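Many introductory courses stop at the sequence. We go one step further.
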Amino acid sequence: MSTPDADQSHAPDQSHEPAESDAPPPGPPSGPTPAARARRARIAAASLLMGAAAVVLALRLASRSSVLVVGVYGLLLILCGGVIELSRRGRTRLGTWLLAAGLAAALVMDGVVLS
């Protein structure tokens, strides 16, 4: 016959102390990194500018503006697409500078050609 003390000695330890495997694994914090957030912000800005340029281009086409103005906004659309691709590849600073320079050039050319 077995005694109750002998049966309990073979039972696994049922203590409620947290084991090392219960702790969250060390690693990078969850969520996007600052670089990923910057890429998404540049992509969103270029996409919004692309939409605005398309609307202005449609308005210029409807008002029978100069072909040069249509060309300027067409180039701005191409530039926005290039900035989106640069941002996807991680070249956000270059994309930001190109986007700002392209927008300024398009606005100046629109004013020069229409006047």
